[in-house]
Design the sequence.
């Protein structure tokens, strides 16, 4: 039943090319900046957008292969689709919304009743059948949409930013619930998200899209340690530098130099964790291989302290405690000494 | 304008607006003031009035049915994309809204009349002659009313959230099922407004009907036509018929009220 997508399509001016396999019982999160092709990828799998070339298959069945003249329309693919903003039919009750897929597939009235009851039970809204979509909160609507997607027992599950339309307080709960449903679903699962936390919590692997291509696929840990693009680095909060390594010296595109402990040679990306950067009033003594002076550009509050933006040929963000900001008298425009151990600079060849 | 004191400017504006509103209100007031309330019962009981009312109802409702059956497919096709052909068709379909009704009547006669483009063939092949029949009133009313339905339906079809159709497709609904269970209910408000406007226009149709269908009592003399005739021989009857038509119009506006309210 596993999903295999190797193909491309044109979306406006963006030429998209997707190469990804999703195993049964595996969740892959598609992350990337706006316009990277995440939704396009999902629409291709759902059958809402045909491939221009390549092949999409689920299990043994080819769903889309333009060169062979194969295209299975959306209504015959058996996909469960959870859209961003629920998209419940406003004129129909919750029951009729959840029943839609069962009826479309020709289920008998008793089967529809049983299927809807089971699906609503599953998402924890057993008594919501007679309600109208306009009476639901964002979180409830999204759970009804999930019940609607699961009721016809789809072969694969597609989730398009399922939590983005839900307010923050409901999100935590819904995320946990979603995780439970994903784990309980036997087929392949594809999840589009721009929230790194969603991706980390819900997905087994993360595929990073940029400019219509999948630029990196891996587990959260792999991608967090070695992000290959600015987008992913921002996503996980790391400093991300592009440049070249020669004899253990990493030179940034702006000419900044960092001593690194790596055997990589040639074009590379370097990441530095914000908490690995130490800040000093005066030139620090000791062993750090990288010591230089920079100007504080801005200080921003962070979850566990302050993020200090540092200007220069090696632009970095350091994370320090609020107390350290006070003691060092940090303020925008002040000059400060920076120390960074060579071993704290992660380098990956491009 | 800035040198005019704002109070004076406000006065001029208010006076002009009041004059305008008066222009709308006075005729209605005249209708109510001059209505022969005492004769109302006997006027309404006459068979000529009954004939006219029956004809108007049959003609306008049939025209609405024609407009929906033929107009909805046009609207669906128009809403389904952009092309020069669609623009051309839209212009032709919308034309009756701005066309002087007398021109519409003459044009209909030239198309469906005995010596018309299609009329001659109809007569020779089927022995059917359209002008001066009740069917002709339906054709004239449909011709004048359908543009309102098509216009409103197309606007609704263009503006509803098509992602609902995507969801329905993934749930296993084919194109026909999607149209019936998703598209139609979602555009229903637009269809309703279009149908009401179309029906009201068909009910009030006068000039095109007179030219194309004639003014035959019991066959083509609908209420507006009866009104026109009565104005010359029995003004009180004309006023009664006008009152009835005006009340129907007010009822139509009442049914349309959701569409007329300014969104907050």
Sequence:
């Amino acid at each position: 039943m596993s999903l295999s997508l190797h193909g491309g399509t044109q979306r406006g001016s963006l030429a998209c090319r997707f190469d990804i396999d999703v195993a049964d019982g595996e969740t892959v999160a598609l992350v990337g900046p706006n316009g990277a092709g995440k939704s396009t990828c999902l629409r291709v799998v759902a059958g809402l957008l045909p491939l221009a070339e390549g092949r999409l298959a689920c299990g043994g069945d080819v769903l889309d292969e333009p060169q062979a003249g194969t295209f299975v329309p959306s209504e015959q693919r058996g996909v469960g689709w959870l859209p961003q903003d629920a998209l419940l039919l406003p004129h129909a009750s919750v029951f009729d919304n959840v029943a839609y897929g069962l009826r479309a597939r020709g289920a008998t009235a008793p089967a529809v009743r049983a299927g809807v009851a089971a699906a609503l039970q599953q998402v924890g809204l057993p008594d919501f059948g007679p309600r109208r979509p306009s009476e639901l909160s964002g979180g409830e609507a999204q759970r009804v949409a999930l019940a609607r997607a699961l009721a016809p027992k789809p072969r694969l599950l597609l989730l398009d930013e399922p939590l983005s339309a839900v307010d923050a307080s409901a999100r935590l709960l819904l995320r946990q619930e979603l995780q439970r449903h994903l784990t309980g679903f036997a087929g392949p699962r594809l999840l589009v998200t721009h929230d790194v936390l969603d991706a980390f919590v819900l997905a087994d692997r993360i595929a990073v899209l940029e400019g219509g291509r999948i630029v990196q696929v891996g587990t959260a840990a792999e991608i967090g340690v070695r992000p290959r693009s600015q987008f992913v680095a921002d996503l996980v909060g790391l400093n991300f530098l592009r440049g070249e390594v020669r004899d253990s010296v990493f030179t940034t595109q702006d000419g900044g130099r960092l001593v690194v402990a790596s055997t990589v040679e040639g074009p590379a990306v370097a990441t530095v964790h914000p908490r690995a950067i130490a800040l000093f009033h005066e030139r620090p003594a000791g062993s750090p291989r990288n010591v230089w002076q920079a100007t504080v550009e801005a200080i921003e509050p962070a979850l566990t302290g302050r993020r200090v933006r540092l200007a220069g040929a090696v632009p970095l963000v350091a994370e320090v405690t609020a107390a350290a900001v006070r003691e060092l008298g940090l303020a925008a425009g002040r000059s400060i000494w920076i120390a960074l151990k060579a071993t704290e600079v992660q380098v990956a060849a491009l | 304008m800035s040198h005019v004191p704002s109070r004076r400017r406000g006065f001029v504006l208010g006076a002009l607006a009041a004059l305008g509103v008066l222009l709308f209100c006075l005729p209605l007031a005249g209708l109510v003031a001059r209505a022969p309330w005492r004769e109302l019962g006997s006027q309404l009981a006459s068979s000529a009035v009954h004939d006219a009312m029956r004809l108007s109802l049959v003609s306008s409702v049939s025209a609405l049915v024609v407009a929906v059956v033929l107009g909805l497919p046009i609207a669906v096709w128009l809403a389904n994309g952009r092309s020069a052909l669609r623009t051309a068709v839209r212009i032709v379909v919308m034309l009756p809204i701005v066309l002087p009704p007398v021109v519409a009547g003459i044009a209909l006669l030239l198309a469906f009349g005995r010596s018309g483009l299609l009329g001659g063939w109809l007569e020779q092949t089927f022995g059917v002659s359209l002008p001066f029949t009740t069917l002709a009133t339906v054709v004239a009313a449909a011709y004048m009313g359908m543009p309102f339905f098509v216009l409103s339906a197309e606007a609704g079809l263009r503006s509803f959230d098509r992602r609902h159709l995507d969801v329905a497709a993934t749930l296993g609904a084919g194109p026909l099922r999607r149209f019936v269970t998703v598209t139609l209910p979602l555009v229903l408000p637009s269809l309703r407004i279009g149908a009401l406007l179309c029906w009201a226009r068909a009910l009030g149709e006068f000039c095109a009907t007179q030219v194309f269908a004639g003014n035959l009592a019991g066959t083509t003399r609908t209420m507006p036509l009866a009104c026109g005739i009565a104005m010359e021989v029995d003004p009180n009857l004309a006023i009664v018929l006008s009152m009835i038509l005006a009340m129907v119009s007010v009822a139509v506006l009442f049914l349309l009220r959701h569409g007329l309210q300014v969104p907050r």
Remarks:
- Chain B is about 80% helix and 0% strand.
- The two ends of chain B are 30 Å apart (CA to CA).
- Residues 149 and 194 of chain B are 4 Å apart (CA to CA).
- The mean pLDDT of chain B is 87.
